[in-house]
Design a protein that fits this description.
The chain has helices at 36-40, 46-55, 58-75, 141-177, 179-193, 197-208, 212-238, 242-249, 254-266, 268-290, 302-308, 310-314, 319-346; strands at 3-6, 15-18, 80-81, 93-95. It is mostly helical and 357 residues long.
């Protein structure tokens, strides 16, 4: 057993420990949160530990599972063929599975059964034959919702990804270089922010016309602004750190400094914003479709379904608009749960960190 001895003399005030055996400490386990294997493992940085924290958030995982389920329903609702515009592979079957119980475009009844009279085929209420009922044209609402998820979900994901590719470089350039470059980019952002979203959307659609890619473009025009502004603010703080100064002193190029040293430490708020923006974009696309600025009435996009079924709902056919609205609500709620989980994962000590774990 180690003992302490206080010596007097030249080394007065020092404590000498006798009987200390360094080898005896090799087998001891220390109560610490630091894990050497994790710290030294290659490639395990901030994203790795954020993912570990995200997996402990049950509500976020439930939201991610819901999004995954709705995405699979969208992909496998109907078979997918290569568009006719593609030269060599035109018409080739890419995805042969059809989970939708009926053709979303035709008056087709599940399992080939017919209702007693033709009139009952239209605005048929929910039943075992049609779980969500039929619309004013006799089309199965569940099948149309599954097929329409391709439009709604793809608009959300594509618009956010493209907006990221625009907003992140512009925000990084504005924050890193500052000066006139920063002024020009931020004044463009302020100018576009001065217009209400609906006004910009109407202007874009009026110029380009109605269609899928026109709607996506209108959402991108507004979407990249938030990413550029958020990232610029983060970079203004991060670029003053010592490791950035050291990288510059060692001769690193501006591109290397931005990509390797600044962006990894400034992207967390942008990732959170992008996650939450998917739900916002889907909701915005549905709103534009509801007021007639979205896709064509023949499409099964959720917002367009709500617009087309207004007369049916006014006549008491509640299911015609309830289920498409419920799909929008569930997807946006799932996105918000995932977004909250991502925010808590990147900032566990921040406000709301560690909730529902």
């Amino acid at each position: 057993m180690a003992t302490e001895r206080h010596d007097a003399g030249p080394e007065r005030g020092r404590i000498r420990v006798e009987g200390y055996d360094a080898a005896a400490t090799d087998d001891r386990e220390f109560d610490t949160a630091w894990e050497p294997t994790l710290q030294s493992a290659e490639g395990k940085g901030r994203l790795y530990y954020a993912w570990r924290r995200f997996k402990r958030n049950r509500l976020a995982l439930a939201g991610a599972a819901t999004i995954g389920f709705m995405t699979l329903c969208a992909i496998f609702a109907q078979p997918i063929r290569v568009p006719e515009q593609v030269p060599v592979l035109a018409g080739q079957l890419v995805q042969p599975v059809a989970l939708a119980p009926a053709d979303p475009a035709n008056q087709e009844v599940l399992l080939g059964h017919q209702p007693p009279t033709t009139e009952h085929l239209f605005d048929w209420p929910p039943s075992m034959l049609h779980l969500f009922g039929t619309d004013w044209a006799g089309r199965d609402i569940l099948s149309r919702m599954m097929y329409g998820a391709r439009w709604s979900l793809s608009i959300g994901f594509i618009a956010v990804v493209v907006a990221l590719f625009i907003g992140v470089p512009l925000g990084a350039i504005a924050g890193y270089y500052g000066g006139y470059v920063d002024e020009v980019i931020m004044r463009v952002v302020d100018l576009l922010y001065a217009f209400p979203f609906i006004v910009l959307a109407i202007a874009v659609i009026a110029i380009l016309g109605r269609g899928y890619w026109e709607l996506v473009f209108a959402l991108i025009v507004v979407g990249w602004l938030a990413y550029a502004r958020i990232l610029r603010g983060e970079i203004l703080s991060v670029k003053e750190n010592e490791y950035v100064t050291a990288a510059k002193a060692l001769g690193a190029t501006d591109r290397s400094v931005i990509v390797r040293h600044i962006l990894p430490n400034a992207m967390a708020p942008v990732i959170v914003q992008a996650t939450l923006s998917v739900g916002t974009v889907v909701l915005a696309a549905a709103a534009l479709g509801f007021i007639g600025l979205g896709l064509s009435p023949a499409s099964a996009e959720w917002g367009v379904m709500l617009r087309v079924e207004q007369d049916s709902m006014a006549r008491g056919r509640w299911w015609a608009g309830f289920f498409p609205g419920l799909a929008i609500f569930v997807f946006v709620l799932a996105i918000n749960l995932v977004g909250d989980g991502v925010r808590d994962a990147f900032d566990p000590q921040g406000e709301g960190g560690g909730r529902f774990r």
